[in-house]
Amino acid sequence: MTKVQAQLPLLHQTSSSTEARRLLTTTSREEASKLPSPYQADGIFEKGSFLKDFQDRYETLGKREKLCLLCFAIFPENAEVSERLLRFWWEGERLRPESESDKKTVNEILEEFVERGFIEPVYKRSGSKGSCYKMHPIVRCLIVRHAKEANFFYYDCKGYPNMEFFKSKKICLVKSEGPSWWSKDVLAFTKAREQAQAQAQPQAEQGKDKKQAEAETMTKEKKQKQKQKQKQKLEDQERKEMEKKRAALETTRAKYLGNLQTLFNVSKQFPELPEELFPNMKNIDVLYLGRWERTAERHMEVVDVNFLRGLKNMSKLRFFSLQGISGIKKLPNSIGMLQNLRILDLKACDTLEELPEEVGLLKMLSYLDLSECYLLETIPKDLSKLSKLKVLKGFIISSNSPCDLTHLTTLSELEKLSISIHDDKFSIKEEESIKQFSKFKSLTKLQIAWGAGGIKKSADRAKHPEDKNKTSEASKLWPTAKVLEKYLKLPFLGSSKSVPKKGNVTVAAATAKAGQDKNGDNAKKKKSGAVLQSNVHANNKDQGGRSPKPVLQSELKLEKLDIRCYPDKEPPKWLVPKTLTHLKRLYFRCGELSHIPVANRDERWNVETLRLKYLINIKMDWKQVQKQFPELKLLEKVNCPQITFCPCDASGAWELKQA
């Protein structure tokens, strides 16, 4: 082995010079350029068995499943496509099965594609399965072939989607230089195409033009007169022909746009369509102008939003997305005329300031996403008229907003609700707040996040240090106030306003006397039990002394609860296992929360997924986590320094491994 190793040249000796590096780079580029393109080489797959195997698997799919699979063809190679986007698109295209005998969910269809080897899931750094999927380049090459045969968008010779009109009823918006079919002057686009084709003509024709120019050396006076007459005739003829040609192209383009079914923005940065053409898309089902990527690397912006007035003609539109587009301050009132709209995606429209009241006219709307619209401060009250709304994300609670949670209780089909709190007076600590959520009969997923306005008090204290004396005086009165609250049930800091009877005061007095017992631990247990009992009796004062009832245990059906940037250390009183019996997923992100509550030592959470991120005040170890969450299957812990001894990996994840 030593002799063989001595005969091998060292790496730094062969590639240390710049010439050697340049030679290696040039050779690799030449070899890469010689490789055949899978989109241009017709017989590249016919020789092997891969194509036959792929065809067999593809033919076993149903018609709807084939069209669902072809949707992956318009995305670039190795692009990560979210399940959310596919679900919306398939809903807009009516690709989801509607019959009761074949009710496949989106996840079931995607899992079928994964099992057949068409796509593969994208995994997170923790190793858990994410919500995105991607397609292998070779598989995409074959899918593009089938998409071309089915006229499912138009593709060039390299497999990229193209903005070419008249080829398909589905068209893409892609990044382009110069005029296109969307140009206001369609004739300028056709001229540019003709010039590009003329440049590709052989040089022999150029030599022919030179000979003709040399042959035209006659008498100057006669030549000039003849030229002027011919030039005028030619200009008149060309003007008439151009007008006819322009009118014919405009008519053909308008007719084509009238039959268009899908318009999808793949890579266009400024999706501002001509105001004259936009209203012609009367039969369109899917209008996706926004950003489909999960990251915001591609900046998108529109300067003039007047073209959106043409929405009034799109009565058949089912899916409309403006995700990630800047420059839109307010949607036009014409959006209320989209009577068939199911999904309205306004996520990350960072300049959106106002929603029109006409949004309440969208009677068929089932999904509305207003998340990450940071300048949006008010929600119109007419939003409560959307009787078929199932998902509402980014609902704003502020002092200026005319629509609050009480107005949303009329939405009987609402299943998922995401709230952004911009009002420091709004609190969820008391049990009265959960009564509002219990009025949503179908609500199973709830997310509550506090914005800058929701934690205004703490920010004001930091800005005004001269109020420290007032704060310290209030802190001195804190023990006295707690005693009054405990024994007399006086209203203080959000406590119950009802004053208990004398019997409750007697129980509390006995509790205080028990605190003087010599046995410290037993006394503390008796004290806590007696105080808990007095609290329960106080809360059930109107029940005539009957046995205490769990707070809304049978009425609240939350399966997922996500709390972000919680401003207080003490958790809400209703956040206990006996209230949230159906809860399977519990998330805490940021905030001042000090502990995860349980009403007593015997209570246990039924949570299977627990995510804790950026919590510096919660202090517990792995044994306590297992004791409080015996059904736990997945734990994610990120930047929680006082949650210790958890068997998480480097990314902060732990997952129960099934035998």
UniProtKB/TrEMBL annotation:
Pfam families: LRR_14. The keyword Repeat applies. The keyword Repeat applies. InterPro entries: LRR_dom_sf, LRR_R13L4/SHOC2-like, WH-like_DNA-bd_sf. Residues 195-205 have a biased composition (Low complexity). Residues 304-456 form the Disease resistance R13L4/SHOC-2-like LRR domain. Residues 222-231 have a biased composition (Basic residues). This is Disease resistance R13L4/SHOC-2-like LRR domain-containing protein.
